[in-house]
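quick one before i forget lol
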Amino acid sequence: MGKVTGFLEIKRKKWPTRPIAERVSAAIGENFRVEIDGFRDGPVGPHPIANVLVVFKPEQFEHVVPFLMLNREGLDVLVHPLTEDAVEDHSSYAIWLGSPVELRLNTLPRGRGGRLPSG
C-alpha cells in the first residue's frame, strides 16, 4: 500500500465563483494548517476548469473535509491524496464533494505524485 503524504483541492466551475473560492479558501486557512497554493483561472494539467489548490497533511483530513462538506458554498471539491501515482490520486483514490468534473487524466504521468505539504 502506498503512503499518503497529503491531500488537496477546490474546483471552480466558472469565473464568477472566484470570490466564493477565495472566501472558502480563506476560511480554511483561518481554521486549519493548510497551504493555499494559488488560484488557477483556467484549465491546468488534468483540471479542465478553474481551481485553487489547498494542500493539507493526512492528520488534517478528519477536520478539513467535514468543514468543506458543510462550508463549500456550492463549489465542487475534489479531495485526492498525494501518493506516488498522480493518475490514481485523481481517479480511483479521489472523492468529490458536489458534482464531479471529468478530468484529463491523460495529462498526468503514472508513477509520480504531487508535491508534499511543507511544514
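fyi Residues 7-104 form a domain with the Alpha-Beta Plaits fold (CATH 3.30.70.1240).
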